[in-house]
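S., here's the first fold you wanted:
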Amino acid sequence: MTRILGGTVPLLLLPIPARAQSLQSKVFAKQDATVRLSYASRPGVCGGQNGNINIRDGDDDEDGWTSDCEEGPVRVVITLRQGAVTRLTTRVGGRWLPMAGVTDLGMVSAPEASQLMLAIARKGGRAADDAIMPAMLADSVQIWPDLLKLAKNPDVNTEVRRSAVFWVGQAAARGA
């Protein structure tokens, strides 16, 4: 009997895995915060030195020239004040510089990041329309159906709806 009990005690001392916290709950964990995250970009998405973001269609080098555009990841900075997103900035490529007071979530799942951006857009607020583009840039997602729903939703602010229509057009052009 001692042997059985001795065999189970070490099992009781093993840590119990914590339930995974969603990306959305990590971002909105504090009322006032600056949070940054990175995720894989869809193929052809690249960023330039001045913060420009390009989506290449594969025809850039047909005349023997290509720009110095660094491919992914997508990098997003979200500023929260009183629990609301007041600023959202998107970059592609490059690297984060160390900053005090910033919560860096590191590399996250591209589909989960895309859904976070769509949730920010649906909530409205000062940075809602800025959330559509980074949702679209995420790898391994097909968000045009979500964008179409946003565009048709009369409860969503006009700027978000316009942005959603623009990006649906971009996605449809690529699909066509």
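And the second, which I think is the more interesting of the pair:
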Amino acid sequence: REGNLYPRMAETPSGMLNAVGLQNKGAQYFVDHIYPAIKDIDTHMIVNVSGSSVETYVECAEKIAELDKIPAIELNISCPNVNAGFLAFGQDAHHVEELTAQIKKIAKQPVIMKLTPNVTDITEIAKGAQAGGADAVSLINTLTGMKIDINRKTFALANKTGGVSGPIVKPIAVRMVYQVAQAVNIPIIGMGGISCAEDAIEFILAGASAVSVGTANFHNPAVTLEVIDGIEAYMKKNGFNSVKEMVGIVK
């Protein structure tokens, strides 16, 4: 995938926009060149898979499913800056159910469906993923946004629109994680604007069994370690013996 034209990243108050467009050399390149270099690293790696049709999603997932040291596959059905139907997949509960079921037929690993916030009711999409057999859902992906350069009098991104991420999206993400936690019985990976332990704890209390940190890494490469230490300190202070005891306790 070639990705989008430049410029494809822009700052915005309390966050950023990106329209990279999932540039990468493809699933077979990952299998042949990247996987051999990382497979013996002592950590767990989840591979994010995308496609432009059900058939290409399945083809890519088949290649990843054969790899021994990949413990889970995440399907990106919600990228707002790729003009190939990605967002359309993630905005229709029936399509989500159908695609999830197809991937579950071939995947040996747990399957995680990454959900878009650019929908009227995210709980319906989550229910579709669960009905299709998803082992977990991750949310939220970026919100669709736009920035205009008033000096150049044109769009800040060549793609015109891009995905908004960073602290600006966190209240929306926490709300959606809470809603989905009330609607489905599968684990949720919460994400969207986490930049400290307090942010991560919000997601966990709202119903997330795990969290993911993205944009904050750009300005603080140590942020994930700080989040882990902060969660541990919070647990000790509040008498929790495990993160599982914290999940979804705010009703």
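Why I say that: The CA atoms of residues 175 and 206 lie 8 Å apart. The two ends are 43 Å apart (CA to CA).

Talk tomorrow,
H.
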